[in-house]
Predict the structure.
Amino acid sequence: MNKPQGKPDGSLLRVIRMFFRYYPVLAPIVVFCILFAAVVSSIPSLFIQKVIALIQVWVESGDWSSAKAELTPYLLLLGGLYLLSITAMTVQTQLMAIMTQGFLDKLRRDLFDGMQNLPIRYFDTHKFGDIMSHYTNDVDTLRQLVSQTLPSFIQSGAIVLVVLGIMLYFSVWMTLVLLFGVAAMIVVAKKIGGGSAKSFVEMQKTVAENEGYIQESMAGQKVIKVFCHEEQGIRDFDEINDRLFRHSFRAHALASTLGPIIANIGNVMYVTLALIGGVFLLSGVPNVSLSGKAFSISILIPFLNMTKQFTGNVNTLSQQINSIVMAAAGAKRVFALMDEKPETDDGYVTLVNCRIAPDGTITETDEHTGRWAWRHPHGDGTLTYTELRGDVRMVDVDFAYEEGKQVLYDVSVYAEPGQKVAFVGATGAGKTTITNLINRFYDIDDGKIRYDGINVNKIRKGDLRRSLGLVLQDVNLFTGTVLDNIRYGNLEATDEQCREAARLSGADDFISRLPQGYDTVLENNGANLSQGQRQLISIARAAVADPPVMILDEATSSIDTRTEAIVQKGMDKLMEGRTVFVIAHRLSTVMNADVIMVLDHGRIIERGSHDKLIAEKGTYYRLYTGAFELE
């Protein structure tokens, strides 16, 4: 069952626990400073009562010297307390400035660390703009909670409790009258604040939706313009933005109404208590108090002063409700991302450096030898080592991204070391899905995938992916130099190794003509490069990783025919001695594959060499020659 919107559901308590966990010493110091300042701001009423009482004695007796002697220590004590209060508030504000920014820094780090461990499935099912909103809007609500709302809530709450205690000390009857007004304030705050809270929660969700739409529009500007979709895009954005306006307007309108209503209830209470207090004085009503003193002007005046202080802080507390609800909504979204189940990895077979003797004996070593082996511990405590060769086999594999919507049916693929296997077929046939399964971006529903004779479920995912090179149709370049982007494939690669990889892929020619060559800084996903140039850098990145298995998913689809010829020479060198899986719509790139597999709706319907498939004049023949039959 879904939890009702607008309720903290433990998220705020979790924020507070995290805050104290991050700052186990400084946080209690800040709370003490806040409470100390709150208490000091509440006790002047006691002194006022004493001062008025002494003035009454002086007026009645005319002995000012004794009254002055008795009053001086109280004034000195009050001055000392105020001085300590100022010091405490200064310490609190400085520490809060440090802790607030530190808390947000640590929180974003935890968010990002958790996000890096999420499975690919999460990013396939969530808008990037919505994910970004967690780091901006949602975290910002927690900044306001930690830096302003909680300190104000603690201070006002402490003042209310202390002042209530002093009021009871002075007069129980007057305090009861005040509590009737407090009850009215609570009813109003619950009614108006509840509606405001729901709107704030909806506003927070709509902000994320708004950002998600903007992000998609920015990423797809070329598509929007080429299809003249500007007007429709504006209408769609206006619809989301209008929803945000309605939720925001209602939330802030109700929140702005609550403060004046509470304040005016406080003013009514002040006048009411003044009138009732006057009646008590004139009629000589017996006072019931913890002090045991009779009701007098020396009690009424400070009591009225405390009434303003009490209702003012109740108003402050009511105004914090909306910030708390916003923070609760933000915290709920932040923790929803933080609590997403990370990518599970039950693998225990790892990739290690090794030396291989002439007799085939494999010895593990810490040195980088350029030779790798799978370290396979067994249940009986023994260890076996299997040379990393790049033998990949899929046996009777079934798979579905969503339950009930199967994508692959009984797929079997055998790729021996050094073989080039090509997948062709219509869009949606399942070609990319096969490579996703080899990388274990998703786990299969049935069947087996073996790598060098080892079930991939037993191989640690990081080690599995380290042994695979992947070149996608959609290229992602990161902010940094060209050299840094190539080195992304192998962070231990030297500059010369990166340049050699660029020469191998054919990227060196255009890189050398860039303003700063390999030191040219790329930004905005390499927007200053052509699509083909970006693809060449991506191929160089895979080359510098030097894996035994390469997966090329439409790797040359964005390169012109002339550049493709250059790249193909480099790719041929790159593919020597490696197991290669190629996905291509441009069939000229797969003609020299050892085996070509034709997929249709998740099934392999043909397999064989180019010449064999052409001779059979089946689906591959029609794809290659363009002789499609009209349906």
